Amino acid sequence: MQQDIRDYHDSLSAEDKEICDVLAGEILRALPDAQYKIWHRHPVWFLDGNPIVGYHKLKDCVRLLFWSGQSFHEAGLHKEGSFKAAEARYTSAEQISKDDLTRWLKKSKDIQWDYKNIVKRKGLLERLR
User: Fold this and answer.
1) 93: DSSP letter
2) Which domains, from first to last, does the chain contain?
3) Above 90 in pLDDT, residue 125?
């Protein structure tokens, strides 16, 4: 894992760090070809420059966000925002279902909306896959 992601994790409480360590480990395993970095102050993974998945600490939980997650049609993911994003929230690492996470990460490769060009398209999203 890159140092900037480790630094992000190290800035968290022990419980939140544990959640993020589990999420990062599973994401790195499932998306070995993805680029990842701190983006807008949070860890985010990209495929071909398009944001796919990331997580960040909110006041009372850690939020896992899939940019195209609404198109996954998964009961464990909840609509977030006005585009195609969906989220799951965790307050402990034990709440993370690795089976669900593995399935969602597979879908994140197969189902993508083009967030990379959303500004160029003046807020309109086009499906890539």
Assistant:
1) G
2) 3-110 (3.90.1150.200)
3) no
